Amino acid sequence: MSQIQTVVEWIRSSKKTIVLTGAGMSTESGVPDFRSASGWWTKTDPQQVATVDAIESNYPLFHEFYSMRINLLDKCSPHEGHYILANWEKRGILQHIATQNVDGFHSKAGNTQVEELHGSIYTFRCHSCGRSASKEAFLAKEHCAHCQGNLRPNVVLFGEMLPERAWHNALLNIQSADLVIVIGTSLEVYPVNQLPKMTKGKKVYINKEIAHHSTYFDCIIEGRAKEVLINLQERLEKNY
Predict the structure, then answer these.
(1) pLDDT of the residue at 46
(2) Do residues 121 and 155 lie in contact, with contact meaning Cβ atoms separated by under 8 Å?
(3) Which residues of the chain are under the pLDDT cut of 70?
(4) β-pair partners for 182
(5) Could you list the active site residues?
(6) Bridge partner list, 221
(7) pLDDT given for residue 159 in this prediction
(8) Are 84 and 230 a contacting pair, CB within 8 Å?
(9) Comparing C-alpha atoms, which of 148, 230, 213, 205 is closest to residue 24?
C-alpha cells in the first residue's frame, strides 16, 4: 500500500502524466492476452498469422484469426480501470495515453488523447492498394472492390513499421512527462518497450507479471491493472 500512496503523491505533484498500456489492461475486459503462460501465442504461432506473409501466402488462416478476434471483441467492453483513466483526463490528472492495444477501449471509455501505437482492429484497408474497406466486407471475406486485393484490419503486423504520427506524438509526450505510468505490458515488444526509457520523469510499472528487465523503473507494483487503478483512484479521492 505504501507503493500506491507513493504513486498517488507523484500523480498529485505531476504537471504532465502519461500512461502507456498493453494487453494486461484489456484482459479484465475478457480479451485474451498474447504473452502470458495462458496467452494466445502459446496456442498459435504469431509468425504464421500476424504477418504480411500470412496475408499473401495463407490468407484463409489470417482471415480466420482476425475474424475470430473481431467477433470476440464485439462481446467485450471497457472495464472500470478504463473509465478511471478517462475520468483522470477529464479532471486534468492525465494528459495522454499511448497504447499497444488495438481494441479501442480507451476511446470507448471516454479518453480523447490516445495514440494507438499498434493500430486499430476496427478499421480496414486493402493490403495491395491501401484503399479503405468496411468491417462487413472483411468479415465476409470479400476482395478489394478496386483491385481485388486481400482486405485486412489496420493493425501493425510483425515486421511492419508503427504508425509514424502515433509514434511521434507518443514519444514527444513521454519525453516531456513528469510521470509515466506503464500498465499491463510485458515490455517485450520493440520499439514500444523503449518508450519508458525516453522520459526524464518518474517511471511506474504496473503489471500482473513483473518483467525481469523492469529494474529501471522508480516504482513497481505487481497486480492486475483494474485492481491497482481502483486502489489509486480511492487514494486520490481521499487526497483531493
Answers:
(1) 66
(2) yes
(3) 1, 33-47, 239-240
(4) 20, 205
(5) 118
(6) 206
(7) 85
(8) yes
(9) 205
